[in-house]
Amino acid sequence: MRINSLIDSKELQKEVVTLPAEEAHHLVRVLRVKVGQEIVLFDGAGQVAEAVLETVSKSFVTARVQHRFSIPAPTVQIDLMQALPKPDRWDLILQKGVELGVRHIWPLKTQHTVFSPNEKRQKRWEKIILNAAQQCEIRWLPVLHQTQDISFICTQLSEYDLVLLGSLYDGAQPLRNVLAGKTPKKVALLIGPEGDFSEEEVQLLQQAGATPVSFGDRILRTETAAIFGLSVLAYELF
User: What is the 3-state secondary structure (H, E, C) of the chain?
Assistant: First the structure.
């Protein structure tokens, strides 16, 4: 198994890199690394270094860099704007969103949102994103934003080439039809909560530039809709 560790960009420029205490603890206590073992360091912004562990103690780990290289940013930016579902479903959405190449994740509080976030949950979500990035070697770490309401999100939509609103709305067009012939560079995917967006929220999002899209005849659970939509976008646009 190849070990991947997120490192601060400035630290990554050094010949001998000191790993953060929490990461060092994980490497020593959980992965039981040894001196001389190979490791891959990355900063979450495209910079990567192959290194060899030089010092290993209970709370102090260093690695000597052998080779550095850069991974360019994805040519298409896909952002997920997702109404917060139940915690276990949200954890899954975060994990799979990272794997599917999401660049920004916006949790949404809507009229039908099930629960509200707090500082402890925010930190847990960031840890889920980091773990997914390390396991799947995602070199551009997604940005997790603070939870926002629909009114705020509407002010952000003008920045996108294409805004897709996954909804049960009667006027929704098939996703394949909306994507046909388009080559957007910045896309937002909006997914509602259990119970979907309210009619008022759909109207606000449409007025801000969102296009309602259908994922087929079946009614998908909110976590399935997010994963399905992101998978289609990754297939069509990457």
Answer: CCCEEECCHHHHCCCEEECCHHHHHHHHHHCCCCCCCEEEEECCECEEEEEEEEEECCCCEEEEEEEEEECCCCCCEEEEEEECCCHHHHHHHHHHHHHCCCCEEEEEECCCCCCCCCHHHHHHHHHHHHHHHHHHCCCECCEECCCEEHHHHHHHHHHCCEEEEECCCCCCEEHHHHHCCCCCCEEEEEECCCCCCCHHHHHHHHHCCCEEEECCCCCCCHHHHHHHHHHHHHHHHC
Checking DSSP bridges between strand 186-191 and strand 162-166, what pairing results, if any?
parallel
**Residues 5-33: pLDDT tens digits?**
999 999 999 999 999 988 999 999 999 99
Residue 157: is it exposed, middle or buried by C-beta count within 10 angstroms (0-12/13-18/19+)? middle
Strand 16-18 and strand 61-70: pairing? antiparallel
pTM: predicted TM-score of the whole model, two decimal places = 0.93
Distance CA 97, CA 21 (A): 27
Pair of tokens at residue 125: 């979500």
Positive or negative torsion for Cα 217, 219, 224, 227:
positive
| Per-residue tokens: 112 | 């039908």
In order of their start, the domains of the chain are: 4-70 (2.40.240.20), 77-237 (3.40.1280.10)
